[in-house]
C-alpha cells in the first residue's frame, strides 16, 4: 500500500489531512520517537486518536477558535500533536525556539496573545512561570515530560496525560464536537505563526494559511516525488520554518513518517538507526561530518587510508556524473572502479553516516563550499540546494534532480514566479506566500508589493540555464564605476572557502576595481608554515611573510578565475589585496557576535589601508588599537604589504558539480 | 533509618575515628565534611562494611550490627560511589550500569549464558530499569561508548548511575563533585536533588565544596581528626565556633 502523492481535494486543511491518512493508511507508521533506548511508533490511526484527545482536552480547558497555542521544546510527537490539535479547533499554533531565554519569549507571548502553552519539560515550564507575572494572559501550561514537575502547584500547570484524560471525558460527553470543529476549519484560516528571528527590530509573526502551505507542499511532492514510504528525521527547531515544512506540512500532505530523535545529542546515532530517505541539514552540519570522517581516516591504518584516498579520487572524478545519470560520459574503467569503490568505501561510509537510504538531501541558508558539496555528491548522495524565506514557506527555488549547479540555488518550483527588480532584488510570486505579518500591516506592506510579489531583499540574477544565483543582500550590493555588479559577500564567501582564509572583506563600490582585506586562518596556515620550517612569532608576523602572501595570492587567483567565468561579475575580480596585521574580532567591533564582518566599520577604521589599496603603494604603515580580553587596550603597529593580482579574462571554467 | 553509635576505628596506633555517633533520617541528604584526613571516607567505609570498627554499632532500620560486610550492606540497599572513579573502563556505559543490577538477577550462570526464557525476560526487565536511569541522568548519547573514552564529569555521572541501578535505599557518595568545573557541579547537584526527590533515596555525601554542601544538604556532620566537632543544619554548622576554627576559617 504505497499510493504516492497528492491527497484528495477535500482534505484541504491539516486536520482533515490527518483524518484522511488515518482512513487511507491507518495502520502505517506516522511518527516514531526513541524513548528509553527503544523506537516507539504510532500509526496514523493512533495519531488521529491522540490528537482528538488533545484537542478535546484543550477545548475542555477553554481553548476557542482563533486562539493561539505556544509550543516550546525539542521535536517530540506530543508537541506535533498539539499543533494538530490546535489547528483542529481552529486555533493557531505558535512554535517558539526552545533555547530562547525567558525574556526573549516574553515578547512573542505578549505579541501573539498566548493563553495556552504546551511545553516539553521542566526547563521550559520554568521559563514560562518566570515570565507569567508579566504576561497576564498566559494561564495554562501543559507539560509533556513530568520529570521534576511533581511539586509544581502553580495554578494552570497540567501534565499532558491529564490533559488527554480530560479530553477523553470531554469527548465522551460531546461526541460530535471534534468532527464539527474539524469541519468548521477553512482553507484560508491561518494555520501557523512562525516568528522571524528579528535581526532588525523586534520579531514579526509570519502567518501562513492551510491553503498556502498545502499548495506549497503539494508542489514539492510533485517536484521531488515524495511518497508515503519516505522517512525523515526531525531534529531542527520546531519554530524554524524548515522543520515546519519538512516534518509537518510535507509529512501530512504526502503521509510519510516523521522520526523524533532521543535527544539533541544523539542525533547522529539516531540518524544511523533510522536511515532517512529525505534529509535536510545546514552546511555546517555537513562540514562537521566531513571533518569527523577525515579525522578518523587520519587515524586509520595506512593501507585503509590509501584505499580510502584512492577511491575518493575516483569518486571525485566520476561520482557526480554517475549519479546524475550521465554514466555514458564516464570511461568504462572509471565505472568499474566506482562500483568497486562503492563496495569497499562509499557504501560502508554512507552507512556509518546514516545516509545509505537518502534519496534527496538538501542544504541551504548559507553558502556551501565546493569541496564539501562535491564530497557528498561524489559519494552518491543527491545533495541539492534550496532557497527561500520564512515568508515564502521555506523555499521557492530548488535544484531539479540531475541539474545541480554549485553556485546557484536552482530553478523556481512549479507555480512560483521570480523576477529581478531594476536594483537587482529578487522578487517572488508564489502560492506559498504568507498571509501577513501578525498585527503589522506596515511591515506587511513593506515586504509585499501591491501586485502581490514578495520582496526578498536578496540580490541575484538568472544564469544561462534559468537557474537563480543569489549573490548578496540587495542593500550591500554596489557597482564598480564601469557599472559591473559588485557583491561583496559573494566574493568574500568564495575566498573563505579556502581553509587558509578565515575572514575576508571586499571593497569596490564606486571604485574602479575590487580589492580585499584578508585574515589568514592561524591554525591552517600556521600548521603549513611549521611543516615548511617557516619560523614565526605570532599572527602579525606570519601574516606578513612573503611565502604566505604567495599562498593567498594563489587562492585569490583561483577566485578570480571563477569570477571571470561569470558574465555579470567578471569585472569584479580582486585586483589588489593585503593580509591584515590583526585578526578581525567581535570585541573590537569588527565582527558581529554571529561573526559577520561589519564592512562599513572596517572601512572607516582602516581607511588608511583602503586608500593604500587604491594607490600604487606596495606597503602601508598602520597603527591600530586592540582591546584585550581583560578590557585593557593596546596598539599594534605594523607595516602591511600589498599584493597585486593579475586579472583573468573570461575563460569559462564553471565547476560542474 | 541509619544510625552509627560510638564508632571507633584505629589502624594500629592511628585513631581514624574516635567515638563517633550520628543518625541519618529517612529521605534526607546528610553531608559529612571535614579537613583532609578527618576520617570522612573511613566513616563511609565503616557504614558499608569495607572497614570493621573496633568499637561501636551500626543500626540500619531495625537491625543492629557490630560490623557490616560489603555484601550484606549491598543486600540491605546501600550503594556507593568512590572518590576515585571505580568503573569498568573497557565496558560501555550501558554494561557498567547493568553490573549495578547484579544483585537483582536471579538466574543462574547457565541460564544467562543461554539467554533463554526466564533469563531473557529478566534481562529485558533490568535493561528497562537501566534505561530509566540513563534517561534520568541524560547520558543517552554515550550509552554505547566505553567508559574510558568519556570525560571525567560524565564518568562521575555514570558511577552515580551504577549506584542507582541497584535501587538503593541509602546512597553513599564519596566526593561526587571532586575535580569538576562549575557547570558539571551544578549538573551533579541537580541530579543528587532529583534522585532524592524522585526516588526518595536517602543520601549521605562527603564533599569539600562548602557552597554545594550548604545548598543541598539537610543536615551536616563535621569531623576533625577523627572526632565529631559539629552536627546540625547548615546554618548551625556555619556558626559553630569549633567548626570555624577547624575547617571553615574566617573571612580575611
Structural description of this entry:
Chain A is an alpha/beta fold. Chain A has four domains: 190 residues, Rossmann fold (3-Layer(aba) Sandwich); 111 residues, no CATH class; 64 residues, Roll (Luciferase, domain 3); 168 residues, GMP Synthetase, Chain A, domain 3 (2-Layer Sandwich). Chain A has 21 helices and 29 strands. Chain A has a five-stranded parallel beta sheet, with helices on both faces. In chain A, strands 12-13-14-15-16 form a five-stranded mixed beta sheet. The C terminus of chain A is likely disordered. With 252 residues, chain B is of the alpha/beta class. Chain B has two domains: 162 residues, P-loop containing nucleotide triphosphate hydrolases (Rossmann fold, 3-Layer(aba) Sandwich), CATH 3.40.50.300; 80 residues, no CATH class. Chain B is 39% helix and 24% strand. Chain B has a six-stranded mixed beta sheet, sandwiched between helices. Chain B has a four-stranded antiparallel beta sheet with strand order 2-1-4-5, with helices on one face. In chain B, α3 packs parallel to α6 and α5 crosses α6. Chain B is globular. Chain B starts with a strand and ends with a helix. The model of chain B has no long low-confidence stretch (mean pLDDT 88). Classes of the chains: A alpha/beta (657), B alpha/beta (252). Chains A and B meet through loops of A and α5 and α7 of B.
Amino acid at each position: 500500500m504505497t499510493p504516492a502523492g497528492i491527497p484528495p481535494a477535500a482534505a484541504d486543511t491539516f486536520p482533515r489531512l490527518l483524518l484522511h491518512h488515518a482512513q487511507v493508511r491507518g495502520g502505517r507508521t506516522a511518527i516514531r520517537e526513541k524513548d528509553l533506548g527503544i523506537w516507539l511508533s504510532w500509526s496514523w490511526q493512533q495519531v488521529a486518536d491522540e490528537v482528538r484527545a488533545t484537542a478535546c482536552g484543550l477545548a475542555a480547558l477553554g481553548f476557542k477558535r482563533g486562539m493561539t497555542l505556544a509550543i516550546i521544546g525539542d521535536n517530540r510527537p506530543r508537541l506535533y500533536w498539539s499543533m494538530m490539535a490546535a489547528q483542529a479547533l481552529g486555533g493557531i499554533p505558535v512554535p517558539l525556539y526552545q533555547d530562547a531565554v525567558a525574556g526573549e519569549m516574553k515578547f512573542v507571548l505578549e505579541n501573539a496573545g498566548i493563553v495556552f502553552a504546551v511545553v516539553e519539560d521542566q526547563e521550559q515550564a520554568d521559563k514560562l512561570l518566570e515570565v507569567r507575572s508579566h504576561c497576564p494572559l498566559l494561564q495554562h501550561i501543559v507539560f509533556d515530560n513530568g520529570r521534576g514537575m511533581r511539586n509544581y502547584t502553580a495554578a494552570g500547570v497540567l501534565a499532558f496525560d491529564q490533559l488527554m484524560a480530560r479530553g477523553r471525558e470531554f469527548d465522551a460527553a460531546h461526541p460530535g464536537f471534534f468532527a464539527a470543529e474539524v469541519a468548521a476549519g477553512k482553507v484560508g484560516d491561518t494555520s501557523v505563526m512562525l516568528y522571524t528571528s528579528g535581526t532588525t527590530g523586534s520579531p514579526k509573526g509570519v502567518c501562513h494559511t492551510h491553503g498556502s502551505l498545502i499548495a506549497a507542499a503539494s508542489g514539492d511532492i510533485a517536484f521531488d516525488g515524495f511518497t508515503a514510504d519516505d522517512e525523515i528525521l526531525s531534529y531542527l527547531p520546531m519554530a524554524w520554518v524548515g522543520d515546519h515544512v519538512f516534518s509537518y506540512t510535507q509529512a501530512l500532505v504526502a503521509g510519510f513518517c516523521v522520526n523524533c530523535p532521543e535527544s539533541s545529542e544523539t542525533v547522529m546515532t539516531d540518524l544511523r538507526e533510522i536511515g532517512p530517505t529525505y534529509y535536510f541539514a545546514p552546511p555546517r552540519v555537513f562540514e562537521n561530518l566531513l571533518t569527523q570522517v577525515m579525522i578518523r581516516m587520519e587515524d586509520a591504518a595506512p593501507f585503509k587510508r590509501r584505499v580510502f584516498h584512492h577511491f575518493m579520487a575516483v569518486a571525485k572524478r566520476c561520482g557526480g556524473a554517475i549519479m546524475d545519470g550521465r554514466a555514458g560520459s564516464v570511461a568504462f574503467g572509471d565505472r568499474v572502479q566506482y562500483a568497486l569503490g562503492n563496495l569497499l568505501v562509499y557504501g560502508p561510509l554512507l552507512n556509518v553516516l546514516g545516509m545509505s537510504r537518502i534519496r534527496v538531501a538538501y542544504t541551504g541558508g548559507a553558502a556551501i563550499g565546493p569541496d564539501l558539496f562535491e564530497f557528498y555528491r561524489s559519494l552518491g548522495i543527491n545533495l541539492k540546494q534550496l532557497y527561500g524565506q520564512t515568508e515564502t514557506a521555506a523555499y521557492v527555488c530548488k535544484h531539479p534532480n540531475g541539474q545541480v549547479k554549485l553556485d546557484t540555488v536552482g530553478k523556481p518550483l512549479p507555480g512560483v514566479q521570480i523576477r529581478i527588480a531594476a536594483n537587482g532584488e529578487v522578487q517572488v510570486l508564489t502560492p506559498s506566500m504568507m498571509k501577513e505579518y501578525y498585527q503589522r500591516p506596515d511591515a506587511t506592506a513593506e515586504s509585499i508589493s501591491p501586485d502581490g510579489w514578495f520582496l526578498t531583499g536578496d540580490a541575484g540574477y538568472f544564469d544561462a540555464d534559468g537557474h537563480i544565483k543569489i549573490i548578496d543582500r540587495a542593500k550591500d550590493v554596489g557597482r564598480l564605476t564601469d557599472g559591473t555588479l559588485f557583491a561583496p559577500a559573494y566574493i568574500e564567501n568564495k575566498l573563505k572557502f579556502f581553509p587558509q582564509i578565515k575572514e575576508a572583506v571586499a571593497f569596490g563600490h564606486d571604485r574602479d576595481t575590487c580589492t580585499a582585506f584578508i585574515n589568514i586562518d592561524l591554525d591552517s596556515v600556521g600548521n603549513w608554515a611549521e611543516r615548511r620550517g617557516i619560523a614565526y612569532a605570532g599572527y602579525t608576523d606570519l601574516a606578513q611573510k612573503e611565502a604566505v602572501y604567495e599562498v593567498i595570492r594563489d587562492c585569490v587567483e583561483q577566485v578570480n578565475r571563477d569570477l571571470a567565468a561569470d558574465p555579470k561579475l567578471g569585472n569584479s575580480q580582486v585586483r589588489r589585496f593585503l593580509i591584515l596585521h590583526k585578526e578581525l574580532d567581535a570585541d573590537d567591533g569588527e565582527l558581529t557576535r554571529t561573526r559577520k564582518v561589519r564592512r562599513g566599520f572596517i572601512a572607516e577604521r582602516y581607511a588608511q589601508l583602503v586608500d593604500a589599496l587604491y594607490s600604487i603603494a606596495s606597503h602601508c604603515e598602520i597603527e591600530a588599537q586592540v582591546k584585550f580580553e581583560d578590557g585593557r587596550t593596546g596598539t599594534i603597529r605594523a607595516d602591511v604589504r600589498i599584493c597585486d593580482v593579475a586579472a583573468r579574462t573570461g575563460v569559462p571554467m564553471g565547476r560542474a558539480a | 533509618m541509619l544510625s552509627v553509635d560510638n564508632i571507633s576505628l584505629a589502624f594500629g596506633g592511628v585513631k581514624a575515628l574516635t567515638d563517633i555517633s550520628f543518625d541519618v533520617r529517612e529521605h534526607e541528604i546528610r553531608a559529612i565534611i571535614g579537613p583532609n584526613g578527618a576520617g570522612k571516607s573511613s566513616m563511609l567505609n565503616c557504614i558499608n562494611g569495607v572497614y570493621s570498627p573496633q568499637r561501636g554499632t551500626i543500626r540500619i532500620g531495625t537491625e543492629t550490627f557490630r560490623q557490616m560486610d560489603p555484601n550484606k550492606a549491598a543486600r540491605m540497599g546501600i550503594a556507593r560511589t568512590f572518590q576515585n572513579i571505580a568503573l569498568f573502563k573497557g565496558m560501555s556505559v550501558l554494561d557498567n550500569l547493568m553490573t549495578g543490577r547484579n544483585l537483582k538477577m536471579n538466574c543462574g550462570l547457565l541460564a544467562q549464558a543461554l539467554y533463554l526464557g526466564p533469563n531473557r525476560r529478566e534481562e529485558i526487565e533490568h535493561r528497562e530499569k537501566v534505561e530509566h536511569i540513563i534517561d534520568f541522568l541524560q547520558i543517552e548519547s554515550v550509552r554505547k561508548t566505553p567508559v574510558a573514552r568519556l570525560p571525567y564529569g560524565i564518568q562521575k555521572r555514570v558511577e552515580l548511575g551504577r549506584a542507582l541501578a541497584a535501587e538503593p535505599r541509602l546512597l553513599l557518595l564519596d566526593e561526587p563533585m571532586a575535580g569538576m568545573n562549575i557547570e558539571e557541579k551544578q549538573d551533579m547537584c541537580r541530579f543528587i536533588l532529583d534522585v532524592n526527590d524522585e526516588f526518595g533515596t536517602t543520601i549521605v555525601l562527603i564533599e569539600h565544596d562548602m557552597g554545594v554542601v550548604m545548598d543541598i544538604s539537610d543536615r551536616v556532620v563535621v569531623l576533625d581528626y577523627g572526632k565529631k566537632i559539629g552536627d546540625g543544619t547548615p546554618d548551625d554548622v556555619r556558626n559553630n565556633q569549633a567548626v570555624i576554627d577547624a575547617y571553615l576559617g574566617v573571612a580575611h
